[in-house]
Amino acid sequence: MGSEREQVQTVYRLGQAAFERGRYREAIAAFEQALELASKNTVLGGEIQMWLVNAYAAGGRQADAIALCRRLTRHPDTETKQQSKRLLYILEAPRLALKPEWVTQIPDLSGLADGQTTLESPYSQKPKRSRRARVAEPEPVDLNQVNTADNQFVWVALVGAAIVLGGLLWLS
After folding, report:
1. Which of 59, 105, 116, 163 has the fewest CB within 10 Å, making it most exposed?
2. Where is the composition biased (Polar residues) (predicted)?
3. pLDDT digits (tens, 9 = 90+) for 80-122
């Protein structure tokens, strides 16, 4: 029993690693193999099937992903059931039409010569420097024109603070 569980875990991890590398066909094969070795109604079986749904969707097998996700909405594990309902909602959502200005086109780099690292683009050229007008530094402030007369604010603030503190002490 222990070796079967270890084998399931090993195949399951291989599927996860393949999925994370973008190798969806390998991931699908590994998850299907792990599912054959594990019980579908266990927590681990539910996890494997959720990964399999994602692998199906990423691998272009949308119908298989939706069908499996619908079956998982009746899974005995409540966490698997909730996740599958959320994922099913996403999988069945209508596809939005994209305007061309919303999409960034990625250039085809297959035509690059050996050793060439970039394509010629008008945006890749550095703009020519224009001579900027020198920014004038602000004139220094004449301290003789600054009002430095004492306006008694500090004394008024100290007296006000003393009255408040005295009132608090008297009330306590």
Report:
1. 105
2. 115-124
3. 889 999 988 998 888 888 888 888 877 776 666 666 666 565 5
